[in-house]
Predict the 3D structure of the following.
Amino acid sequence: MTWLSYTKALNRALADAMTEDDSVCVLGEDVRAGMAGPTLGLHRRFGGERVLDMPLSEQAFTSFAIGAALSGMRPVVEFQIPSLLFLVFEQIVNQAHKFRLMTGGQASIPVTFLVPGSGSRTGWAGQHSDHPYSLFAHAGVKTAVPATPTDAYGLLRSAIAEDDPVVLFAPAGAMAARDDVVGTPPPVPLGSGRIHRTGTDVTVVAVGHLVAHALSVADELDGELSAEVLDPRTVHPVDWELLRASLRRTGRLVVYDDANRACGFAAEVLAAAGEEAVLLAPPRRVTRPDGAVLPFAPELDAALQPQPGQLRDALRAVMR
Amino acid sequence: MTGTVPPLATPAARYRMMRLIREFDTLALEWERSGTIPGGVHPCIGQEAVAVGTCAALRPNDRITSTHRGHGHVLAKGADPARLLAELAGRATGLNRGRGGSMHAADLSLGILGANGMVGAGAAIAAGAAWAARRRGQDTVVISFFGDGALNQGVLLESLNLAALHRAPVVFVCENNGYATTLAAAEGIAGSATGRAAAFGIPAVTVDGMDVDAVRTAVAEAVARARAGAGPGFVECLTYRFEGHHTMERRLRLCYRTSEEVDSWRARDPLDRARPGPEEADSIDVEVAGILRRAADWALEQERPDPATAGAYTYAGGPAPRPGVPA
């Protein structure tokens, strides 16, 4: 049994994928130095032809990876800041995601877009604190938000093996997590959720680093109510069957989601539950506010993120 | 099906292809007006020499990325005109199974990595495809076609830098037709097209884009250098579109060019310059008319795609898009 950190899990997933498959390459800013963590040591091990340090040209290197995919590679593009995804939305959504359909199925674009440190890292202010996974789910890009090191390993391996583009968000709030593991964790199929904790009264759908918060709150309220904690692991596609089955058991729903409220992932889960499940109480969502921009000062930053206290209140509200 | 179009090795073959492109886009204009083509098209009439001259400098396994004005490039690279017409008409057996239309025409089996609706978007794709192909030991070159409007897209300039840094075997072919939609190049481009390439250390030349052989010669030199590992090249082709930016323009009655200007360029029609002796030219023209007629007949016979398959090809496998209304 060994400790596996979240960052090390991503690093191992990249190294293992590169070892197994010569067509896997990594490119992005500061990937040789491994500044964000996941690419540490890969340049020394695999060389500059497979680990490409790129100039500050996000739009070009994102599409460069798409072109490389059209030549049979499986590139992984690392972004140092989640807000850079706004800059490359064109390349990921309008090019990578649409390429297969627009060509009538002729082209596969197996590119993984890796976003370590997504969401608030406290004190990085408005342009460095976004957690934009809902946008990609909305556009239909396969989108993973692993909560644990084991899932980070398994989802990144699956993302790289996928014949479609996948964005993998590693939440800043999860990257300090450690798991006990024996051997190599298994791949996690995209679209497979995970029940972290079973319960009978209410289903908490929690995303990314909020899974750990949800588990703490569920433990804290144990005795008062029995909460089931469901981690969808991928926000597109979603494991609707797992959610349906959970709601059949509990009949109540709270979604705990570090995205903006309007048109966010939580809204989608509530809508789907409303269409498909019979609920005993109106569902709740705990999210960032509508149109939130995270302010700089730590108290302000925290004030706009979903908090355990809000989750506690929401859980009690659906039980009334 | 109409059989394959001959390669572009001889002057007659190049003229034949230019004639095919001219007649193809003329037919596309008719089909757009009659409603056979949904949406609109961006005709490349007048620019045939760039497409044909460039593709004449390529080997079959070389590849191209194209633009929203891409019929000429796609045909010159060998696409079946019948399947391209079927695609424009939205038919199930079109080049892209009716999923792409004019702006996304692609045939990966022929190295056509796709026309692209976003100005300048193909440049980085071409650079990446070229880099990866060389890394995988393939002796191929990728052409990135784009217009003068793309010279003001940041991603294109970023792509020049990346291609030069990685010595990617890619040749950037700028079709400078003088207008970014309605904005004259002189009013949109500070400095010059070739100056931008030169700033990244990329050899750049300007050629007469109405002269198919001038284009072919310049592109062939750049392709040879790129294939030999010397890195990217840049060829600016001065050309002109005789028609509007897109087919909507006629209805809008936009006026941003003088008729004298259009006429002066029409007087330099690239087909006139490439035309072989009258007898041979006439016979090619008749042959092309026949190819196109059979292509059109075939395309119009093709079935329309089944609406139930509208979400097909969104993903490689696994989840199909969920319906937007309850099942």
Summary: Strands of chain B lie at 63-65, 142-147, 170-176, 179-180, 183-184, 204-208, 233-238.
